[in-house]
Design goal:
mainly alpha; 0% strand; single chain; 169 residues; 7 helices
Length: 169
């Protein structure tokens, strides 16, 4: 019942995660080509928001136990909704200015080709031309699911970690 009472904080946290991660994506790829793996550094945004929202949710229950499962439910919902919101925000940003998305795609192609060039024969991409064509054909709408899936993966590590730290017996 506690998580239903805290749904406003959970949704607020999801919006903060979504807007923060989409802003990070926009800022990173607006300033030129960098390796696309830089996207993985956005895990700090969900971590910080998750910590602060868990503190707020726990503070609303003074003297009462805050169980691991409460943190797990709230955190997972927050990250999953945050990933969906992040993907939708990125998609909406491409409707107004798609240059950052084009930079993301060109960076992905550039670094794939460069890494394949210097890779040992056993690690070379089997059909590089097809993979490059697949990346170039990527549509902005595909980032909605991509961001949501990334945040689900983050939730497997971040949420249990934060829930264990802030649980109260």
């Amino acid at each position: 019942m506690s998580n239903i009472a805290n749904i406003r904080l959970i949704i607020l946290g999801a919006f903060l995660i979504g807007i923060g991660c989409s802003s990070f994506f926009y800022m990173v790829f607006s300033f030129g080509q960098i390796p696309p793996q830089a996207r993985l550094f956005d895990f700090w945004i969900p971590l910080v928001v998750l910590i602060f929202m868990t503190i707020l949710i726990r503070a609303k229950k003074p003297g009462q136990p805050f169980h691991f499962w409460e943190g797990l439910i709230s955190g997972n919902l927050m990250l999953w909704l945050g990933g969906l919101i992040s993907g939708i925000c990125i998609w909406l940003l491409t409707k107004y200015n798609a240059t950052f998305f084009d930079t993301f795609l060109s960076s992905s192609v550039r670094y794939l080709v460069e890494s394949d060039r210097y890779a040992p024969p056993a690690l070379k991409v089997k059909d590089l031309a097809a993979k490059v064509a697949e990346i170039k054909a990527t549509q902005p709408v595909s980032l909605i699911m991509d961001e949501a899936i990334k945040k689900v993966y983050y939730s497997f590590i971040l949420v249990p970690f934060v829930s264990m730290i802030f649980r109260r017996k």
